[in-house]
Design a protein that fits this description.
CATH topology: Rossmann fold
Number of domains: 1
Strand order of the largest sheet: 3-4-2-5-1-6-7-8
Family: Belongs to the arsA ATPase family.
Order of helices and strands: EHEHEEHHHEHHHEHEHEH
Largest sheet: 8 strands, mixed
Helix content: 40-55%
Mean pLDDT: 80
CATH superfamily: P-loop containing nucleotide triphosphate hydrolases
Keywords: ATP-binding, Nucleotide-binding
CATH architecture: 3-Layer(aba) Sandwich
Protein name: Arsenite efflux ATP-binding protein ArsA
GO molecular function: ATP binding; ATP hydrolysis activity
InterPro entries: ArsA/GET3_ATPase-like (IPR025723), ATPase_ArsA/GET3 (IPR016300), P-loop_NTPase (IPR027417)
Amino acid sequence: MARFVFFGGKGGVGKTSCAAAFALLCAKNQQKTLLVSTDPAHSLADLFHARIGCEVTELAPFLFGMEINPAEESTRYINRVKNNLIQVVSPVILEEIEKQLDAASISPGSEEAALFDKMVEIINENGNDFDQVVFDTAPTGHTLRLMALPELLGAWLDRLMEKRRHALKLSGMAMRKGHEAEEIMAKDPVLTLLSNRKANLERAREVLLDRQRLRFVFVLNPERLPVEETAKAVGVLAKHGIPVNDLVVNRILPDDQPPGFWQKRKVIESSYLSQISQKFPAQRILHIPLMEMEIDETTLEKMAVWLAPLLEIKEADGVEGTA
């Protein structure tokens, strides 16, 4: 099954470019690679001068792309729930439930839940078709909420199943069929739906916690806010058992700068590079220089050279968080 590589980081640090460069590197090494964008501000299509949608699209030999639209996935998710309910809920209460679902579709967190469902689908269904699946994620806060969902959704599904079993048991007792409760539960379509979703969630969670198959790479610039945000994010992910193996420090200025503005900027940058080394002793740190030209396929190939170590899995991957 594929290795899954997540690129995260603060908005504007260049994580899309790094994710695309790494995916291109994998493809150049003849590894069948799927590059998935979960960022609402999609730019993969612009990078590769191609139309990319929610279906797997070939971009180059061994390289395929997909752009997930969180709003569309949320609508699709709610419609899927409605279709499932039609089969198991009385028409008398179906209309009221649909109103509640429509309200839920625009509530905070609905897009993250739908997006995570799509990621689970990609991990479970596309993982066997590719050697590498590379996720270009949304800015840090969105990504952290997304990665915290397995625990929240797992607990929520457990409670729903417990309540459903209790209701079925009471229903069986009311009909004097308590001895048939297990058989009723085994055939109950609601429990079947919930159990299947829990199983899919557990398979995806196994991937997220598997240090040999999951790589989480944070991209940052040598500046105060990206450094601080990355330190917090690494710590949060560690609490959820998700290791951050590598950091990519992007857009580093050349060493030889003339006196004046750029030399001052280089001195400041050097101090942050030193801070990064001290703050993240457990992570492998890769450096990418500031590119002279705008980002295109040629630039991505140059960036890919600096990302080559990501193709290797370190022997000691006991990565802890940083406070």
